[in-house]
Specification:
transferase activity; Bacterial transferase hexapeptide (Six repeats); Trans_hexapeptide_repeat; about 375 residues; 14-stranded mixed beta sheet; UDP N-Acetylglucosamine Acyltransferase, domain 1
């Protein structure tokens, strides 16, 4: 009995399935099949016999893949040039919807699924088990690692690389030459706790990242946020919804940036800092490791707190030392130097050094340290 479906068959090409850095080194995917020059830098191809069962070639595949008593000739399978679920070299096939656009130069690993209206550019490489939902568009030279999920309407510019087991949620847009590490989630929508006061925005726009951005492994970036070109997000960082992150910003490993926050261009936020919701950091600021910012003087009590919730404002080229704490609503003026471990409980003056617990003004910032 033949299935009623509109899938066409796409033969996977040996030696072209991808695995991004931090993926499957040391397991069965190691090594290259085919000529080495067919494998992209930092990618590992698939050995030619990885997916073949015990035995040799097509004979063993027929015995293991076909229904009992029928070998490889079953017509029921939705994949395979002969309806047997296997390519000519014995690998299980990817399934590609009839309206998908797949150029000859694209390479699909086994077990991929491409939905209606998917468009792949020239030279795209998909690792094994990739899922591309309807309307996804991948520009020329994009490379996806193993088991990457690309939800509907995602748009990737040319030469984007995405690591193993990452997920790109609906409508996410990545500019050219972005790099996304493994196990990251991009464009996810918020799902707050039942007791949370955060209101979910039904019409939250998709995540948008400019060209040449880098995202490490296990990072989580929410929908509704915009990243400027050449932004960097470290391993394990979280950037919540409705944030605006300027060009060249560095968000270090393990940093959390809460919702509705603005970060100016070329600002650096170092490892483990906590950037609270509803705050603004102007351009070229420096936030050292483990800085804590806060926005609620009532710590969850009373109704009037909702009108008064406000994070700190950090001025242009201000520097905040390691382990410092900034209380709700304080303004750290332009070119302020906040010493390590300081507790900033009131506004500072421009180009002044503050230190202590609580912080106090001690001297001017040296002229040679000021930015033009």
């Amino acid at each position: 009995m033949a299935h009623d479906h509109d899938y066409k068959k796409e033969i996977s090409k040996p030696g072209r399935a991808a695995s991004i850095d931090g993926g499957s080194a040391g397991n069965a995917w190691g090594g290259l099949s085919g000529p080495p020059d067919e494998a992209a830098d930092n990618f590992r191809g698939l050995p030619g016999n990885v997916h073949e069962p015990a035995g040799h070639g097509a004979e063993a595949v027929e015995n293991s893949q076909g229904p009992a008593g029928h070998g490889g000739g079953a017509a029921e399978s939705p994949c395979g040039p002969d309806g047997d679920g296997n390519t000519a070299d014995g690998r299980p096939l990817s399934c590609v919807a009839a309206t998908a656009v797949i150029p000859e130069s694209a390479a699909l690993g086994p077990f991929c699924s491409l939905g209606e209206g998917v468009v792949l550019g020239e030279g795209v490489v998909l690792g094994s088990g990739c899922i591309l939902e309807e309307g996804a568009v991948l520009g020329d030279g994009c490379q996806l690692g193993h088991h990457v999920t690309v939800h509907r309407g995602v748009h990737l510019g040319a030469r984007v690389r995405v690591g193993d087991h990452s997920t790109l949620y609906e409508g996410t847009e990545l500019g050219e030459a972005c790099f996304i590490g493994g196990n990251s989630s991009l464009g996810r929508r918020p799902r707050p706790a039942a007791s949370s006061t955060v209101k979910v925005q039904a019409d939250l726009p998709p995540l948008n990242m400019g060209c040449a951005c880098t995202v490490g492994c296990a990072a989580v970036l929410y929908a509704g946020t915009v990243f400027g070109e050449r932004s960097f997000v470290g391993d394990g960082a979280i950037v919540r919804e409705r944030c605006l992150v300027g060009e060249g910003v560095i968000v270090g490993s393990g940093v959390t940036v809460e919702n509705d926050t603005r970060i100016g261009a070329w600002t650096k936020i170092q490892t483990g800092s906590y950037i609270t919701a509803y705050m603004e950091i102007e351009e070229r600021a420096f936030i050292a490791p483990m800085v804590t910012t806060t926005n609620d003087n009532f710590m969850g009590r009373t109704e009037k707190r909702f009108k008064l919730v406000k994070g700190p404002h950090i001025g242009r080229a201000a520097r905040v030392g390691g382990g410092a704490i900034l209380l709700p609503g304080v303004r750290v003026a332009e070119e302020t130097f906040v010493a390590a471990g300081a507790l900033v409980s009131k506004n500072t003056e421009a180009r002044r050094v503050v230190k202590g617990f609580p912080a106090r003004d001690v001297r001017p910032v040296p002229e040679e340290e000021l930015l033009p």
